[in-house]
């Protein structure tokens, strides 16, 4: 929209044609397409992505204490996923039902490939 100190000419143009002023603020189609492509690449889950609590490191599996702790941790993640799924289908909870309400999936531990709202990966690389 108009700069902080528009000239009289710019201000008049804005007042006479506000739609054109707004349209000049938007990026070009090529700029918008580049941003969309980059966001898609950065948002995709790789088919071989590893998620927290999914697999234990082979070296850690040899130690019974670490292996037992990992099993407890993995069990808690599965339990958490069940709690999230149960809350998503509970119509008595606020903001969980109605038209256009998407299920909460952000902290579900695991995800399939593609752009999803799920999964807690071991690490990210942007």
Could you characterize what this model shows?
This protein has 126 residues and is mostly helical. The chain folds into two domains: 8-43, no CATH class; 47-126, no CATH class. It contains five helices and no strands. The mean pLDDT is 84. It holds the Pfam family Lipoxygenase. Keywords: Dioxygenase, Metal-binding, Oxidoreductase. Residues 1-126 form the Lipoxygenase domain.
How would the blueprint of this fold be written?
Layout: H1 8-16, H2 18-25, H3 29-43, H4 58-61, H5 64-89
Helix pairs in contact: 1-2
Low-confidence stretches: none
Beta-strand percent range: under 5%
For the termini, the CA-CA separation is 32 Å
What's the story with the biggest beta sheet? none
Query: What's the total count of β strands?
Result: 0
Order of helices and strands: HHHHH
**Overall pLDDT metric:** 84
Structural class assignment: mainly alpha
* Radius of gyration computed on alpha carbons: 24 Å
Keywords:
metal-binding; mainly alpha; LipOase; 126 residues; 2 domains; LipOase_C
Tell me briefly what this model is.
The protein is mainly alpha-helical. Helix content is 49%, strand content 0%.
């Amino acid at each position: 929209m108009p700069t902080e100190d528009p000239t009289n000419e710019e201000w008049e143009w804005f007042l006479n044609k506000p739609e054109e002023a707004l349209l000049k603020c938007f990026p070009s189609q090529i700029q918008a397409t580049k941003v969309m492509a980059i966001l898609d690449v950065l948002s995709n889950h790789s088919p071989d992505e590893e998620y927290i609590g999914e697999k234990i490191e082979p070296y850690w599996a040899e130690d019974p204490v670490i292996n037992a702790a990992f099993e407890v941790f993995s069990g808690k993640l599965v339990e958490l996923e069940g709690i999230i799924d149960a809350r998503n289908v509970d119509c008595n909870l606020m903001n969980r039902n109605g038209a256009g309400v998407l299920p909460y999936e952000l902290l579900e531990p695991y995800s399939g490939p593609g752009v999803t709202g799920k999964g807690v990966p071991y690490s990210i690389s942007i």
